[in-house]
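Researcher: We plan to redesign the surface later, but first we want a full-length starting point. Tokens attached.
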């Protein structure tokens, strides 16, 4: 999925209001099991939203810079 998933609580009858926010397209719905440990908390949702705003505002690091920094860190450690 290219963007953040939308988690919907469905009672099995009524159409959830969250679907009105989803853009047109084809979707595969998969039930989220409670034991998978995932919970989109308000704090996590806010953090994701801040990240999206950073991207929209251009506050990002170019991928080439990230790759170079990772390569330098790996090269700095002797192999076993």
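Model: Full-length starting sequence:
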């Amino acid at each position: 999925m290219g963007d953040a998933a939308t988690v919907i609580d469905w009672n099995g009858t009524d159409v959830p209001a969250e679907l009105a926010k989803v853009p047109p397209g084809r979707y595969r719905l998969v039930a989220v099991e409670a034991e998978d440990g995932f919970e989109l908390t308000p704090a996590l949702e806010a953090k994701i939203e801040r990240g999206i705003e950073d991207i929209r505002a251009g506050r990002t690091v170019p991928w080439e810079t990230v790759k170079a920094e990772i390569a330098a860190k790996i090269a700095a450690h002797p192999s076993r």
